[in-house]
Specification:
Radius of gyration: 20 Å
InterPro entries: Gfo/Idh/MocA-like_OxRdtase_N, GFO_IDH_MocA-like_dom, NAD(P)-bd_dom_sf
Shape: globular
Number of strands: 14
Number of helices: 10
Helix content: 25-40%
Distance between the termini: 37 Å
GO molecular function: nucleotide binding
Order of helices and strands: EHEHEHEHEHEHEHHEEEEEEEHH
CATH architecture of the largest domain: 2-Layer Sandwich
Number of domains: 2
Organism: Neobacillus bataviensis
Low-confidence stretches: none
Structural class: alpha/beta
CATH topology of the largest domain: Dihydrodipicolinate Reductase, domain 2
Protein name: Putative dehydrogenase
Mean pLDDT: 97
CATH class of the largest domain: Alpha Beta
CATH superfamily of the largest domain: Dihydrodipicolinate Reductase, domain 2
């Protein structure tokens, strides 16, 4: 049983707490908020024995073994270092950091202190992702892929009124690609590997970040097109096209349904299985297993995928002069 604490009191933190409880591998022992009243209420709501308004005090608490961080993106790095230096495992919500320099420093700090650092990215831990990866060969030689993840954000309404919510702010390392685009990008990296070339074509907002964009990943023999947006909606499914068949995914996250269409027989079949409605449970379970069994091989694979994804988003931003304050 991993005794963990949380940073952040939003809906994503609530989802992680619920998933951790469902996994039966974690025990919530602490929560953090800058606001004492919010921290106290959140602790009472989820039966946490401690609440904190000071990160350093929380990091020094000997009962805590791991910390889940779901604060604004630009705060991830410094908060993560605080916990790693106090020998706490860290599970940091995607996007893990603002740039690769932060990632390299954090991995080094984790290694020096004998703890693990994970990026929380739910879709690649699900049973259906594992099925997709195992069955990908059925498509034969790949010739194209289109992986959209486009969801209109209610916070864009505030942006249009002249405000600047965190997710649309360069100060807080926001934007469509790092917030939503990482889901299909992770699929591409985990399924196809690191691309030979990256090209990003964004809609840049007045705040200097991307509200929407098209990311092209060049692989040998095919191009993967990723569509991401927080300012429009899309009903397009994900598709992976091969000479022998096509995979159709209902969504990039949590991959609720996978259909395979055979090019030659013209037959289609469902390959997916039913998953837990609280689909974050799978990343909770995998991370707990790595920690408890010291599965260094799987940990190194996750590190490699996180590094590739962050290199791509950083390159995409550089191409379009999208600069975060953290840079």
């Amino acid at each position: 049983m991993i005794k963990f604490a949380t940073v952040g009191t939003g809906w994503i933190t609530e989802s992680f707490i619920q998933a951790a409880k469902l996994s039966e591998q974690y025990q919530l022992v602490g929560v953090y908020s800058r606001n004492e009243e919010n921290a106290r209420k959140f602790a009472n709501q989820y039966n946490a024995s401690n609440y904190f308004t000071d990160l350093e005090e929380m990091a020094k608490n000997e009962e805590i073994q791991a910390v889940y961080i779901a604060s604004p993106n630009s705060l991830h790095f410094e908060q993560t270092l605080t916990f790693l230096k106090n020998k706490k495992h860290v599970i940091c919500e995607k996007p893990i950091f603002s740039n690769t320099a932060e990632l390299e420093k954090a991995y080094q700090t984790a290694e020096e202190n004998g703890v693990y650092l994970f990026e929380a990215i739910r879709n690649i831990h699900t049973p259906n992702f594992k099925i997709l990866k195992e069955k990908l060969h059925l498509a034969g030689d790949l010739r194209s892929a289109i992986l959209p993840y486009m969801k209109y954000s209610s916070r864009y309404d505030l942006f249009l009124k002249g405000e600047e919510p965190n997710i649309f702010s360069s100060l807080y390392s926001g934007g469509a690609l790092v917030d939503l685009g990482v889901y299909p990008l992770y699929l591409a990296v985990c399924l196809f590997g690191e691309p030979m070339k990256v090209s990003y074509h964004p809609v840049v907002l007045r705040s200097g970040v991307d509200g929407s964009g098209t990311l092209l990943l060049n692989y040998k023999g095919f191009v993967c097109t990723i569509l991401c947006s927080k300012i429009v909606d899309s009903m397009i499914p994900c598709e992976i096209h091969g000479e022998k068949g096509t995979f159709v995914l209902e969504d990039a996250a949590p991959i609720s349904e996978i259909k395979f269409h055979d090019t030659h027989t013209k037959e289609s079949k469902i390959l997916s299985v039913d998953q837990e409605e609280q689909n974050m449970v799978y990343e909770c379970m995998n991370i707990a297993d790595i920690i408890e069994t010291n599965n260094h091989e799987e940990y190194e694979q996750l590190k490699d995928w996180s590094s590739i994804v962050l290199r791509i988003t950083e390159e995409a931003r550089k191409q379009n002069h999208i600069v975060f304050k953290a840079d």
